[in-house]
Amino acid sequence: MCTAANYTAKDHYFGRNLDLEYSYREAVTVTPRNFPFEFRRVPSLKTHHAMIGMATVADGYPLYYDATNEKGLSMAGLNFPDNANYKPVSEDGTNVASFEFIPWVLGQFETVAQVRDALSDVRIVDLAFSEEFPPSPLHWIISDRDESITVESVDEGLKVHDNPIQVLTNNPTFDIQLFNINNYMSLSVDPPEPRFSKEIPFDTYSRGLGAVGLPGDLSSMSRFVKAAFTKVNSVSGESESEAISQFFHILGSVEQQRGCVRLDDKYEITIYSSCCNTHKGIYYYRTYENSQITGVDMHKEDLDGSELASYPLVKSQQVLMQN
Ligand SMILES: C[C@H](CCC(=O)NCCS(=O)(=O)O)[C@H]1CC[C@H]2[C@@H]3[C@H](O)C[C@@H]4C[C@H](O)CC[C@]4(C)[C@H]3C[C@H](O)[C@]12C
């Protein structure tokens, strides 16, 4: 399971939890403007917007999980099993492989509005990067400071949904996730007014009673509701420190603790949580065993270069002893 979210204070922040039971050697990776992006069925991009994000670098190619470009456009791929349906390559349209979708979008566009237009003739095609890396069943959230969309390649074709909540998890399809939120419209951050019955002497015995019924389990529909409630009600100061702290708390509200979701002989965990300041191009992250926030600043790299810069995750716990 995974969760992606947006948050806006003074700057805009985009990030995700990557929830899985194993790792693909992911690393924070900066792709500079002159790294040649070769694509299988669409013209390559010899020069493009620079981007920073989490990727597995395979044969010198950055297979991004989530990334932000130098214009502040961001995108993340989240698991979408049994629903993702990639198409065979066709003579018509713009044939983009699923593993190319993030660099193809972030390499060229600056806003969600531009992406929405460009998607009108896109087919996500079922080409594999390699035998080791076959297509993964994904759907995507694409965001700028002002809006988000969710893109799903399903049986009927490519669906582009407006995403007013600016959160994405996994199954089911996004239209159902959005509809399900209706069931929670009475939840509130304020104490409840007793409307159950005038005959019963209700007692507001605890703080937080306004949100009783907010799901706390780790299923993807429940995480969608929990992350949405936390995100839309989030409040923080405007400083970088306050905003990124709040962002990690939003993701923390739906993180996975080892032991709670069993998959045969393994457990799913939140391998990393990321938070990118999309204005400054700084990618912050935490890992399951390293609660300290680590950052990589895209603008400290040579963005006019052609070589990838990759930073393996700092995974060991950084404890500050005070005596
Ligand atoms: C599995 C990951 C998503 C995590 C997630 O949503 N888990 C939930 C599981 S479930 O719904 O509850 O079943 C996805 C996110 C990005 C994916 C990776 C990226 O797409 C980059 C490459 C793409 C290649 O085609 C496959 C390997 C890969 C390296 C992908 C492996 C895997 O599918 C990743 C890591």
TrEMBL record:
<dbReference type="InterPro" id="IPR047711">
    <property type="entry name" value="CBAH"/>
</dbReference>
<keyword id="KW-0378">Hydrolase</keyword>
<comment type="pathway">
    <text>Lipid metabolism; bile acid biosynthesis.</text>
</comment>
<feature type="domain" description="Choloylglycine hydrolase/NAAA C-terminal">
    <location>
        <begin position="2"/>
        <end position="311"/>
    </location>
</feature>
<dbReference type="GO" id="GO:0006629">
    <property type="term" value="P:lipid metabolic process"/>
</dbReference>
<keyword id="KW-0443">Lipid metabolism</keyword>
<dbReference type="Pfam" id="PF02275">
    <property type="entry name" value="CBAH"/>
</dbReference>
<dbReference type="InterPro" id="IPR052193">
    <property type="entry name" value="Peptidase_C59"/>
</dbReference>
<dbReference type="InterPro" id="IPR029055">
    <property type="entry name" value="Ntn_hydrolases_N"/>
</dbReference>
<protein>
    <recommendedName>
        <fullName>choloylglycine hydrolase</fullName>
        <ecNumber>3.5.1.24</ecNumber>
    </recommendedName>
</protein>
<dbReference type="GO" id="GO:0045302">
    <property type="term" value="F:choloylglycine hydrolase activity"/>
</dbReference>
<comment type="similarity">
    <text>Belongs to the peptidase C59 family.</text>
</comment>
<dbReference type="InterPro" id="IPR029132">
    <property type="entry name" value="CBAH/NAAA_C"/>
</dbReference>
